[in-house]
Design goal:
By secondary structure, the protein is an alpha+beta fold. The protein folds into 3 domains: about 120 residues, Box (Proliferating Cell Nuclear Antigen); about 140 residues, Proliferating Cell Nuclear Antigen (Box), CATH 3.70.10; about 60 residues, no CATH class. It is built from 7 helices and 21 strands. The strands form 4 sheets. The chain has a 9-stranded antiparallel beta sheet with strand order 4-1-2-3-16-15-14-8-12. It has a 5-stranded mixed beta sheet with strand order 17-21-18-19-20. A 4-stranded antiparallel beta sheet has the order 11-10-9-13. It comes from Cucumis melo. This protein is an auxiliary protein of DNA polymerase delta and is involved in the control of eukaryotic DNA replication by increasing the polymerase's processivity during elongation of the leading strand.
């Protein structure tokens, strides 16, 4: 039992920091979301699978999963683990007893008050269900994460395809339906009503695969309008399920947010007169001439609403001088090139 609880905590502690463990006469359960509210984990350990289980009334115990994992590391894999909490107590006692019963250790951990809402997850009919070796699924997620950040999972009658794309290239892995293997845990089974293709973040899937030591096979249930469910069955004791919302594909997202520009980015506050037409006159004879003018500075002519000109001169030191209208009547700009622009 000590080994099992260690594996359960290792499968959840990187995804969820604090969570409420609900103890009822029927079993030991947990439901919690990650900090970004993108993934949800659901755990169930049935009461009849424990060697001894007693719960007089339903209670909720708030715990930090990393602290609980530290406590369980003090237990041997073959130790008998006992968890005890008195009614109304603010602490949980861990008792570890070795198989020869000549060593008993107990640790006490403070409980936490955690406000959390228990989400009712309805049973749903999924369009595609894939059962495959848990070790193989973990390896695929690990390999693809070295190429890209997301994975496109596509399910068809022939098999399931995992695809990713990154800066260094692309990768595609196909697992074909295979039910004729000698070992049932190595089979790849697909139940499909219609093809499904969804994209998910690999960092979450890699976190889910930490439950691989708990089960030989993993079940991936997908529908186009529902979060994916990645389930690991813990022998006959229960299960641990992960729910993950799909990502919007980059092409669809780009199409949704990109709009053609119908107006210029900058417009003048005052409307121009009817006889003034927007124009930009800049015709350097060569690229070298253009570059030399940029180095020397440029003069931009801007006409105001009375059709009088005000010149603004920009130089290399980013110092601008504005000549008054009276100076314009007597002085002429000495720059060899003038760029004229009327703003709307």
């Amino acid at each position: 039992m000590g080994s099992l609880l260690k594996k359960v905590l290792e499968a959840m502690k990187d995804l969820v920091n604090d969570a409420n463990f609900d103890c009822s006469p029927t079993g030991f359960s947990l439901q919690a979301m990650d900090s970004s509210h993108v993934a949800l984990v659901s755990l169930l350990l049935r009461s009849e699978c424990f060697e001894h289980y007693r719960c007089d009334r339903t209670i909720s115990m708030g715990m930090n999963l990393n602290n609980m994992a530290k406590m369980l590391r003090c237990a041997g894999n073959d130790d008998i683990v006992t968890l005890k909490a008195d009614d109304g107590s603010d602490s949980l006692t861990f008792m570890f007893e070795n198989p020869s019963q000549d060593k008993i250790a107990d640790f006490e951990m403070k409980l936490m008050d955690i406000d959390s809402e228990h989400l009712g997850i309805p049973d749903a009919e999924y369009q595609s269900i894939v059962k495959m070796p848990a070790v193989e699924f973990a390896r695929i997620c690990k390999d693809l994460s070295s190429i890209g950040d997301t994975v496109l999972i596509s399910v068809s009658k022939e098999g399931v395809q995992f695809s990713t794309r990154g800066d260094i290239g692309t990768a595609n892995i196909v697992c074909r339906r295979n039910t004729t293997v000698d070992k049932p845990e190595e089979a790849v089974m697909i139940e499909m009503e219609e093809p499904v293709s969804l994209t998910f973040a690999l960092r979450y899937l890699n976190s889910f695969t930490k439950a691989t030591p708990l089960a030989n096979q993993v079940t991936i249930s997908m529908s186009s309008d529902l979060p994916v469910v990645v389930e690991y069955r813990i022998e006959d004791m229960g299960y641990i399920r992960y729910y993950l919302a799909p990502k919007i594909e980059e092409e669809d997202e780009a199409a949704a947010i990109s709009k053609p520009e119908t107006e210029p980015k900058h417009t003048a506050k005052a409307k121009p007169k009817a006889d003034l037409k927007p124009k930009f006159e800049a015709h350097p004879e060569s690229e070298s001439e253009m570059k030399s003018e940029e180095d020397k500075g440029s003069v931009i002519e801007i006409k105001d609403k009375d059709n009088k000109s005000v010149f603004v001169i920009n130089d290399e030191e980013k110092n601008s001088s504005v000549k008054s209208k009276a100076q314009e009547e007597t002085n002429t700009p000495k720059e060899p090139k003038i760029e004229t622009m009327d703003l709307e």
